[in-house]
Amino acid sequence: MEDVFIQNALTYAARHRRELTERLGFGIHGIIFVAGNKSEGGRTAVKVHRETEPYLRERDAYERLKQAGVTEVLGFNVPQFIRSDDDLSVIEMSIVTRPFVLDFAGAYLNAPPHFSEEIWADWEAGKREQFDDRWPEIQAVLAALEEWGVYMVDVSPSNIAFVD
Asked: Sheet harboring 100-101: ordered strands across?
């Protein structure tokens, strides 16, 4: 199964004159590789997705943020959308440093998902525990994203990361 994702990443890299140099990360939605530009130099991130729905959500979120000119949210860097390939479920974006907010595969556009009040309460309790005294800052970042119609649900210290 993993081979399909790696092959999609390699196919994308060949189509766009990129060279995959290392794995930058992985998660439930996909694998991220560092890609070098063969002709221009520079490095980008290439994320190949496991499923179509999270790919489309992430692609649409990054496109919306790009159209709005969003490069950071309350001091948290946001990767910049470069291009996507719907056939391969691949998104190419800039690489950002901490502090950052990234990984919009679990985000929803225009409205949050329809969960019960109990599920939302459990979700928030878990996030308060994860982020401790930094939870108010995370809430502010989430509220700012919602102003652009991006409702981030997959919130973790690896997706919204502080400098320290």
From this structure: 72-73, 76-77, 100-101, 160-161
For residue 62 the two structure tokens come to 């990054």
The single residue listed with the structure tokens 């000119």 is 69
Mean of the per-residue pLDDT values for the chain?
95
Asked if 90 contacts 49 with a C-beta cutoff of 8 angstroms, the reply is yes
- What's the pLDDT tens digit per position in 55-107? 999 999 999 999 999 999 999 999 999 999 999 999 999 999 999 999 999 99
Q: How far apart are CA 150 and CA 156, in angstroms?
A: 16
Q: What is the DSSP string of 65-85?
A: HHHTT-SEETTEE-PPEEEEE
- In three-state secondary structure terms, 42 is coil
Give yes or no for a contact between 159 and 102, defined as CB atoms under 8 angstroms apart.
yes
